[in-house]
What does this fold into?
Amino acid sequence: MTNLLRSSLVAAWLGAALFFSTVVAPAAFGVLRQFNLANANEIAGTLVSRTLTVINISGFLIGIVLLAAALIWKRGRVGPVVVVQWLSLAVLTTSTAVGNWIVAARMLALRTAMAVPIDRVPADDPRRQVFESLHHYSVALLSAAMIAAIVALVLFGVRRQAERDSAFGRV
It folds into this structure.
């Protein structure tokens, strides 16, 4: 699998994750709150959860495919750049998996167990506090995945430049 294809997959995921984080999630909550709906946060949260599921699963799948390809088509000596690149892809894969199948699943279970829209659950309710804590973990995991994607992209570029240099006999 070429560096260009790998870079394109990671860059596309990173762009989607950035767009989700900076535009989609804030816009969903902002727009729905403008209508003064009693359950605005519940509706926005449902929309954001479904969108985040796509971001997390696609990040997981891209990470798995790229890690598998790296192991299958490993060429020659594995240097520190390659190891850090693999670690970055592993962080991307793990963070998105944990974010989706552990944290988001627990958040959904809590929302379901509350039996009323989260907007109506008092801020001092222990379930709401756990929910808020899980939300912070979700944000941290997505942030870690995005940072790992940036590191992987930079290292794809470093490897591409090193391959060009060696092809032209430069050291």
Remarks:
- The mean pLDDT is 92.
- The chain has one domain: 3-162.
